[in-house]
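Give me the fold.
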Amino acid sequence: MIDHVSVGVADLDRAARFYEAALSALGLARLVTRPATIGFGKAYPEFWINLRGGMTKVPHESGTHICLRARSTAEVEAFHASALQAGGTSDGPPGLRPHDRVTYYAAFVLDPDGNRIEAVTFPKD
């Protein structure tokens, strides 16, 4: 249904370092580099970061977040750890999130610009 998503960043080089670390844990790599945008993906760019000069930090209360699928709980944990090591902030550590219809395993991080990124998997157990 969704082909690709993008987030704005104030510093493209800083964001590239962050996303290269965090997204590699999910099997995504930098595929496209242009002067003001970088695309990450597996076979084609699915996740883009776009330079937005003068951008202020995204307010946490905006409610916006992007969720990326992980293949396992280990990938969710690696995503979270890599994101924190690369300058991100935890907004929810790796763990089970039980809900009415499904239980999933996820972790949430804020990138250096305040964009909220989630990694999720749906364990069979």
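The chain has a mean pLDDT of 95.
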